[in-house]
Amino acid sequence: MKNSIGGPGSVSGLMLRLGQCLFASASIGAMVSASGFSSYTAYCYLIASMGLQVLWSLGLACLDIYALKFKRDLQNPVVLSLFAVGDWVTAFLSLAAASSSAGVTILYSRDLDFCSLQQIPCSRFQISVAFSFITWFFIAISSLVMFWILGSV
């Protein structure tokens, strides 16, 4: 089978995984640097979702590095099914976490003007949410590629 762009065991797939890991880590870092984030459930859910994404992406990036270094083919139906299901699960979790956190951030910063009244660092929340949406974009690309490859096997 021909190597697909973004598929497992390819350089482009490795770049997608590293992008997911990088932006999920940046989202966690921005959120953790804001004081008082743990008081809000949506932000804790975002941290948990991005933490899961870092672990999943880092694990698959290591597998991609192994496949590239030793010239292994990862394009068999069992491995592709595992990748596709894992990518879809993390994609849904990441989109839900990013959307709920964005809703809370907009509510507090624009609608209630809660950030200026309570001295909450809403700009860090906004940066973290932006990074989480970028992470989701990379996950969406990866999950669609996996689904496409799995359908062609």
From TrEMBL:
InterPro entries documented for this protein: CASP_dom, CASPL-5
GO cellular component: plasma membrane
Principal cellular location given in the protein's record: membrane
Keywords: Cell membrane, Membrane, Transmembrane, Transmembrane helix
Cellular localization per UniProt: Cell membrane
Domain of life from the UniProt record: Eukaryota
Keyword rRNA-binding listed: no
Positions of the Casparian strip membrane protein domain: 8-138
Topology within the bilayer: Multi-pass membrane protein
Regions crossing the membrane: 14-32, 44-68, 88-108, 129-150
Summary of subunit composition and partner proteins: Homodimer and heterodimers.
Family membership noted in the UniProt record: Belongs to the Casparian strip membrane proteins (CASP) family.
Protein name per the record: CASP-like protein
Lineage of origin: Eukaryota, Viridiplantae, Streptophyta, Embryophyta, Tracheophyta
